[in-house]
Design a protein that fits this description.
α4 crosses α5, α4 packs across α9 and α11 runs parallel beside α13. Helix content is 35%, strand content 14%. The relative contact order is 0.13. A hairpin with a 2-residue loop joins β14 and β15. It is globular and about 60 Å long. It has 16 helices and 17 strands. The chain folds into 3 domains: 237 residues, Type I PLP-dependent aspartate aminotransferase-like (Major domain) (Aspartate Aminotransferase, domain 2), CATH 3.40.640; 116 residues, Aspartate Aminotransferase, domain 1 (Alpha-Beta Complex); 69 residues, Orn/Lys/Arg decarboxylase, C-terminal domain (Ornithine Decarboxylase, Chain A, domain 4), CATH 3.90.100.
């Protein structure tokens, strides 16, 4: 029986939208966006139809739009054009970010129990891949630049040492370039890997433009790697969460296997807006206008670098010398203040000068020079940094003690692994206060920034050196029997 109609007025009200409000507030600040995504709030390509009416084009797997998991139409054609642009054998759209590409790569190159060589500065998505696949990591440290509070590239000698010690390893995962733009000699490392018959996966998330300009280092796509992952939104200008995976010529990974791994991990309801963003961005980057924009960006970067290197007396701007320069991305502007931590200084410049940064650590602040920035943005950046330097006292000296406090010992950075990550993840756990964590086995990842060196990973023993870096709220550990 249907209820009788009523004339009573139903009161309605709009629920609060804290995230929407925060986005609007951030935009109103009109900051200079030296951070990801690389479009810096600007549309790089001219076609405005989709981007001005996103709800109209927020579609799904309908007639004529192809299927991401089994592409044989327009998605396949778009991916083939991407492969042509990056000069690789196969390219795949990633709508769960570069993270899903790294996890898929792990499924392709490492079976349960297999040894995988991984430097400690790998993205946490690599750890997720270990948990999913059941592979066993062999951790080692990349090189270190203590005077800059930076972790550097993985050297050829380090890789050779690991290969000698672990001849049964099946794969090597590398992050190149690092967050701050320091790249490894992938070509030489790839030769070592091929000689020993192991797969080389390169997280080139922050080097998406390398394959598109002769003024940038040679991409891993053309250096012998088997799988290369690009966060196109980080430096190419696509929408956040859109990325690409590439299988270069001669890859040991079969395209059908990689597609199967992606189908295991990616959403079955892919965002056509994200895919369209990848398509449009690659179309732009491959055009004359796109190539000209990349060259314009590099000219702006080198002009700013030249002025700052010539004028700064106290603030330092990182720039490698010698052979390391050929594997380094100049678009990563890493600055160190002599008297303030990077966190304090970066936050001050963002609040007072509207100069938004990408990341900050005790040793410095990272600003990313992006395609979406304007000439005025670079002029203001240069003016602000120069004025900061001029205002410092003539006797200002680098606060070296501050940087030393941020670097744990090698023993702390490479803890004893008691359980493989997958086993630790599935064990029963409990959260304990920091004071009770000593000698317990970590069940969670403790890392303050995804590209940084983790303090702990699942399965590792907590040592005294780790305690100051643990969350004050406590840490999840494997429950004792």
């Amino acid at each position: 029986m249907q209820p009788a109609p009523t004339n009573k007025k139903v009161e309605t009200h709009q629920l609060e939208t804290p995230l929407v409000d925060a986005l609007k507030t951030y935009d109103r600040h009109d900051r200079r966006r030296f951070h990801v995504p690389a479009h810096a709030g600007q549309r790089l390509y001219e076609d405005a139809s989709i981007w001005n009416q996103p709800f109209r084009y927020d579609l799904t797997e309908l007639e004529g739009l192809d299927v991401l998991s089994e592409p044989d139409g327009v998605i396949l054609e778009a991916q083939q054009r991407m492969a042509e642009l990056f000069r690789v054998s196969h390219s795949f759209m990633l709508i769960n970010g570069a993270s899903v590409g790294l996890m898929a790569a792990m499924l392709c190159v490492a079976q349960p129990g297999a040894k995988v060589l991984i430097p400690r500065n790998a993205h946490r998505a690599v750890l997720s891949g270990l948990i999913i696949s059941g592979a066993h990591p062999v951790w080692f440290l990349p090189s270190h630049l203590p005077e800059w509070d930076l972790w550097g590239p993985v050297t050829v000698e380090q890789v050779q040492t690991q290969l000698n010690q672990h001849p049964d390893a099946t794969a090597l995962f590398l992050t190149s370039p690092t967050y701050e733009g320091l790249g490894s000699d992938i070509q030489a490392i790839a030769q070592l890997c091929k000689a020993q018959g192991i797969a080389l996966v390169v997280d080139e998330a922050h080097g998406s433009l390398w394959a598109l300009s002769d003024q940038l280092p040679t991409s891993a796509c053309h250096s012998g790697a088997d799988v290369v992952i690009h966060s196109l939104h980080k430096s190419g200008g696509s929408l956040t969460q859109s990325a690409l995976a590439h299988l270069p010529e001669g890859s040991c990974v079969a395209p059908a296997l990689f597609q199967q791994a992606l189908n295991t991990l990616q959403s079955t309801s892919p965002s056509y807006l994200l895919m369209a963003s990848l398509d449009a961005t690659c179309g732009f980057l491959g055009s004359n206008a796109g190539r000209a924009r990349i060259e314009w960006l590099l000219s702006q970067v080198w002009a700013v670098r030249g002025t700052l290197q010539a004028s700064l007396n106290h603030i330092r701007l990182y720039q490698p010398q010698g052979a390391a320069a050929q594997f380094w991305d100049p678009c990563k502007l890493y600055l160190s203040h002599p008297l303030q931590s990077g966190e304090d200084w970066g936050a001050t410049l963002e609040t007072e000068q509207q100069l938004a940064y990408e990341s900050a650590k005790p040793g410095g602040v990272l600003y990313l020079a992006n395609l979406g920035l304007s000439e005025a943005d670079f002029e203001i950046f240069q003016t602000v940094i120069t004025a900061e330097d001029t205002a410092l006292p003539s006797a200002a000296l680098p606060f070296a003690a501050l940087q030393q406090e941020t670097v744990a010992s090698e023993q702390a950075c490479l803890p004893e692994m008691i359980l493989p990550p997958r086993e630790a993840f599935f064990r029963k756990g409990q959260k304990v206060p920091m004071a009770a964590a000593l000698n317990r086995i970590a069940k969670e990842t403790v890392v303050h920034c995804p590209p940084g060196i983790p303090v702990l990973m699942p399965g590792e023993r907590i040592q005294a050196a780790h305690l100051p870096f643990l969350p004050e709220s406590g840490v999840w550990v494997v429950a004792e029997p």
